[in-house]
Write a structure and sequence with these properties.
- The chain is an alpha/beta fold and about 475 residues long.
- It is about 40% helix and about 20% strand.
- The chain folds into two domains: about 250 residues, Aldehyde Dehydrogenase, Chain A, domain 1, CATH 3.40.605.10; about 190 residues, 3-Layer(aba) Sandwich (Aldehyde Dehydrogenase, Chain A, domain 2), CATH 3.40.309.
- The strands form six sheets. The protein has a seven-stranded mixed sheet, with helices on both faces. It has a six-stranded mixed sheet with strand order 7-6-5-8-9-21, sandwiched between helices. Strands 3-4-22 form a three-stranded antiparallel sheet, with no helix packed on it.
- α4 packs parallel to α6 and α10 crosses α11.
- It is globular and about 80 Å long.
- The N and C termini lie far apart (about 65 Å).
- The chain binds nicotinamide-adenine-dinucleotide.
- The site of nicotinamide-adenine-dinucleotide has 28 residues, from α8 and α9.
């Protein structure tokens, strides 16, 4: 077994390490999970709901330890607390919705009244879950929980960049014996992830497009479904007549949340000619008031970058943009202080689509703003992207902005605000467009259905057709 060193984002020191599970260890975990899953599904939905509810209580009990570990890996306390709250919320929400989503009453076939039928659901025995570092806990469980509710066992590999929460989380799982080998957390990097993909019955992956493409290919080879939740390059379009201060606040909040290390962060802005100058001025004014957070509760707005290698991409994109004529009006390059790497809110003008800053994922608090003169041009620009995760449209009213929003090739569009899909976890569905993902919606209670196969049972309660029927169709 090889070890992976883990960096502390506030000190820059590698002060933790994990073991990397190899293919044979993953094989042992998955074999146990497959056996445990039989009891998990046979126990029935009520038992699963009771067990998961018991686990949510343990998550509260172990909450402080889990949040403390997450806070070290991600350099932020409040968002780590929110992550724990979100997982507890997912458990309650999916458990509450499951009886209706998974209900399978017998029904008569309209065209054949003697035949009654129902569809029964057979969960994939083992669902492999592979997650990234930006929201280590939430993204390890946002898909695992509906899979568990559906009756699958899960094998979860969180990112090797932020794995400290695994130990306390394991203790919370061990406190609920019925979850033994049903929720399995394993540690490791790409090789461990690849072993999970090749041995699971279904895979759900959250991460970058290049890794998603490898996983899609490996899943195709293993002939298992892969549900992929990938990167984004969300656009905000600010139409003529928009409230400029509101747009600037919403865009900056999205760009700065978690220091921009968010798949659905606004990473490019298209502003109508009539308000371009005032929007840039307002973005700069508001950005200038944002402060670094050096410790929990100090009132700062953003922490150091979690993954120091990400700043190589950010700096390279900014350098490329400047070389091609862009102007950095606020912020700029990354800064390393006592081992922590900071990227301050950065506003960039004079950008165009020849620059990687406008076409590739940045994953940092950078807001490039481009001018447009008519809506056809704005429509072209916002859709001129390989990504289609989400976006935002600002306009003089909901109707005008909403009309334009229907032209955006993205799975979730906020109107006169940003990041609104976050609040609709159980209420609606949204799918990623283009290279931002595939495999249906993780949003909406119906995402439980991703993890089941459907078996139709049909019973004939009338007479069986006579053998003479064969003669009627033979010629
Ligand atoms: P990444 O693709 O580098 O890694 C994600 C996970 O995949 C890690 O656990 C890693 O160990 C594993 N992995 C790497 N190679 C693998 C392989 N060949 N087979 C199996 N597993 C492998 O992504 P990251 O840098 O950790 O996360 C950032 C990316 O995640 C960004 O692109 C971001 O947009 C995306 N993301 C998407 C969403 C979403 O909901 N759509 C949410 C958060 C992050």
């Amino acid at each position: 077994m090889t070890s992976i060193a883990v960096r502390n984002p506030r000190t820059g020191e590698t002060d933790y390490q994990i073991e990397s599970a190899d293919a044979s260890q993953i094989n042992a975990v998955i074999s146990d999970a497959r056996i445990a899953q039989r009891g998990w599904v046979a126990g029935g939905l009520e038992h699963r709901i009771a067990t998961l509810s018991a686990w949510s209580e343990q998550l509260e009990i172990f909450g402080e330890e889990i949040v403390a570990a997450l806070s070290v890996d991600t350099a932020r306390h409040r968002i780590s607390t929110e992550e724990l709250g979100a997982v507890i919320h997912f458990i309650h929400g999916f458990c509450e919705a499951a009886p209706e989503v998974l209900a399978t009453p017998f029904r008569k076939l309209d065209a054949h009244p003697d035949i009654v039928f129902k569809v029964t659901y057979s969960p994939y025995p083992v669902v492999g879950v592979i997650s990234p570092w930006n929201f280590p806990l939430v993204l390890s469980f946002i898909d695992a929980i509906p899979a568990l509710v559906a009756g699958a066992a899960v094998v979860i590999k969180p990112s090797e960049v932020t794995p400290r929460f695994i130990e306390p989380l394991r203790r919370s799982i061990e406190a609920v014996p019925a979850l033994k080998s049903v929720i399995n957390l394993v540690t490791g990097g790409a090789g461990t992830g690849a072993a999970i993909v090749s041995q699971s019955d279904a895979v759900v992956f959250t991460g970058s497009v290049p890794t998603g493409q490898k996983i899609a290919a490996a899943a195709a080879q293993a002939f298992v479904p892969a549900f992929l939740e990938l990167g984004g390059k969300d656009a905000a379009v600010v139409l003529a007549g928009s409230d400029v201060a509101r747009a600037a606040t919403s865009i900056l909040r999205s760009a700065l949340y978690n220091s921009g290390q968010v798949c659905y962060a606004i990473e490019r802005v298209y502003a109508h000619d009539s308000l371009y100058d005032s929007l840039v001025a307002e973005l700069c004014r508001q950005a200038a008031g944002m402060r670094r957070s050096h410790a929990a509760g100090d009132g700062g707005h953003y922490g150091p970058m979690i993954f120091d290698k990400q700043v190589v991409t950010i700096d390279a994109q900014l350098a490329d943009a400047v070389e091609k004529g862009a102007k950095i009006v606020v912020g700029g390059k990354s800064e390393r202080i006592n081992g922590a790497v900071w990227v301050d809110p950065t506003i960039v003008t004079d950008v165009d689509h020849t620059m990687s800053l406008m076409t590739e994922e940045t994953f940092g608090p950078v807001v490039p703003v481009m001018r447009f003169t008519d809506e056809a041009q704005a429509e072209f620009l916002m859709n001129d992207s390989i990504f289609g995760l989400s976006g935002a449209v600002f306009g003089p009213d909901t109707h005008t902005a909403g009309d334009f929003a229907t032209k955006m090739e993205a799975g979730g569009v906020s109107i006169n605000d940003t990041e609104l899909p976050r609040v609709m976890m159980f209420d609606g569905e949204k799918t990623a467009f283009k290279k931002s993902g595939m495999g249906g919606s993780r949003y909406g209670a119906t995402s439980i259905m991703r993890y089941v196969r459907k078996r139709a049972l049909l019973a004939n309660e009338g007479a069986v057709p006579s053998l003479d029927k064969l003669a009627e169709v033979a010629d």
